[in-house]
Amino acid sequence: MQALPLHSQKFTVCCGFSANFIIGPFFFEEIGPSGLVTCTVKGTLYESLLRNQLIRALQQRGCVDGTFFMQDGAPPHISTPVKQLLNLHFGNDKIISRHFLTAGPTIT
């Protein structure tokens, strides 16, 4: 009997890290007819991952207030629910992303 792979050959994964720890990886998958398959990451799915996994893990470590959150500007990352959630937990001045005050690293 041949063992099934843990993940499909194509997958979408998210991971958070700092100088002190790594959170994740989190795989974006759903159950298909032949098992786990990669799913399209939309704003609602990304917002759920942030709320239920990433922010919760940061809260458990007591480090939300001192965290700067950085992401690229992919469409799921800048959906309205995601922007609202990030603003709630990090504040607009601690988010480095397209559609926020700090669009990317600045050099002073």
UniProtKB/TrEMBL annotation:
It comes from the Eukaryota. It comes from Araneus ventricosus (Orbweaver spider). This is Tc1-like transposase DDE domain-containing protein. InterPro entries: RNaseH_sf. GO terms for molecular function: nucleic acid binding.
